[in-house]
UniProtKB/TrEMBL annotation:
Residues 1-25 form the signal peptide. Keywords: Signal. It comes from Tenggerimyces flavus. This is Peptidase inhibitor family I36 protein. It comes from the Bacteria.
Length: 132
């Protein structure tokens, strides 16, 4: 009995380790930075790939940077280098995932933009809130 349980545990662990890694998918938008969207760019000064997001309610949370790409197929996580906020809402970007990470965050005001990030922020963001 003990041996069977141990075998089951080992097989369970194997299944976890042998499962393919996360598949990457394009972020929800269409890869263009349109009106009423929050746009994350791969490079400084709004260059490279674009990941564009809409928020139709007072609050939206986007936690899946680790499985998303910019419109050009490049990985989104830890790769955001500039931000355009084309909404009337606030954008809050987090290093690692909120709210359980306790990691630093920074924000972009309504209709604001962030063309160049300092060393502390560049290529670190992993999740985002858009809120009134
Ligand atoms: Ca768009």
């Amino acid at each position: 009995m003990v041996r069977k349980i141990a075998l089951a545990a080992i097989l369970g662990l194997l299944a976890i380790f042998l499962t393919p890694g996360p598949a990457y998918a394009a972020a929800p938008g269409n890869g263009r930075c349109d009106a009423n969207e929050v746009c994350l760019f791969e490079h400084e000064r709004f260059g490279g790939g674009v990941a564009d997001f809409r928020c139709g309610s007072n609050y939206c949370e986007f936690r899946s940077f680790t499985s998303w790409t910019f419109g050009n197929g490049h990985r989104l996580n830890d790769a955001v280098s500039s931000v355009k906020n084309r909404t009337g809402k606030w954008v809050t970007l987090f290093i690692d995932a909120p709210p359980d990470s306790g990691r630093p965050f920074s924000g972009v005001e309504p209709n604001g933009e962030w063309a160049v990030m300092g060393f502390d922020w560049n290529d670190y963001f992993s999740s985002m809130w858009i809120s009134q």
